[in-house]
Structure formats: structure tokens, C-alpha cells
Amino acid sequence: MPSPVGLGKPTETETGGKKPTALVLYSRKHCSDTPHSLHPYTSILTISHLESVVALENAAFSDPQDRATREKLIYRLNKCGELCLGIFATVEPDVDFQAATRATAHLVETGRTNEAVSVLLGHIIATKTTSRITTDESMAYPQDWDSDHPSPSTLGHQESGLTIVLHSIAILPELQGRGLGSVLVNAYIQQMNGTGIADRLALIAHDHKVKWYEKLGFVDKGESAVQFGGGGWYDMVFRLEPAKSRVTYG
What we know:
single chain, alpha+beta, 25% strand
């Protein structure tokens, strides 16, 4: 079920030293300078969101080496979509918001008269691994995963793993620097904390993003051995809260 999220005030670090701006859109009808505030909400991603996820991935990462391929996204959304989270906003037809993901957005409600759509603003794409940190094996996927009889493999998603690897944390370019990335990551942490699904989150980050992740509670584990995109990454880890015991009454 979609969960509403609040937009906290972004820091100067997140906005590149500039004064944070409000997350607003503008109407094409009547008064072009009438602001429309976004009300972001989060929801689990499924394979039905594939085209929006691909469009966002391509728009958010200018360097193709930093992007997940379409094939990897298909694999991850099929195998473990429950670990993947999107942040969306309802956009009505008269709102001027030319995002890369608008053309692939789904109608909010079938038969809704104003044809408002649910536009993907950002996403987290993840899998599980048995390793304590991100590895090249966890970032790969078995080529025969969708065959009738796939071979056992240590590549890609490992259901028995206790580490969730965050492969992609992406925000639409026009919305970057407004605190939306922090909202998305915090929503993901809140969703995974205390569930017992995993005991940690792991990711790799470029050196200029290490401080940003540290502000969110991740710990820098040093230079990563991962060679994805040519290497040069840093391992980051976030410790999740343990599963909460159920209280029984009687």
C-alpha cells in the first residue's frame, strides 16, 4: 500500500550550498505561475514499473557505466521487487512537468475523469546477498535465471542472504538537490528496520557521495573491491534494527 512521506528541509550539503527550494510544479492552464506542491508517496516496485524505472535510471545517471542495464532491472524487479521502492507523485494533465518518467506513468485510478498519473520521481533497486558488503557477484545476475531449469548460481539475488544491496538510488535530475533522495533512503530504512528480512544494507558510492551517505547513518568501510563501472568505489554499510518480538496477550 502506498505510504505518504514528508519532505524534510534539505541541507546546504544536499543543495550544493544553495538555498533549498520547494518541491513545486506549475500549471499550464489559466495561471502559469500557479504553484502545485508535490505530495510524494512511496510504494513497492513491480515489473509493471519497468519502463519508468529504465527511463529514470537513464535520466539520473549521465555516465552509462553507472547505470544498471535494462536486463539487470528486469531480473531484479522479477526476482525481488519487494526489496525495490519507488517514490511517486500524482500529476494531473494540466501540470507542466516534463519528466523522463511521465510518458511511462500509470493512471492513478482506472476511469478517473482527469486522467491523473502516478509519476516515478525516484527509486531504490535492491537484491540480497550472503556477503557482508557489496561484491561483483552480487551486482551480476545468472544469464539463465528465467529458463525453465536455471542452474544454481552465486550470482545476483540470494534469498537466504542477510545483506540487502542497494544497487541504484536514483532521483529525477530536475528534482535533485531538494532533499528527495534523503526522504527516499530514510523511507527505505524505516520500511526494512525491525522486519528481520536482513541485518544490514550495503552499497558502493563514489568518494564525493560518502559524506552524504554518512549523514544518513551509513558507515564508510573503505575502498571497495567492486570493479563495476571501472571501480573506484567505497563500501558503505548501514546496520538495521533486529526483528521485533511480538507481544502476546492472554
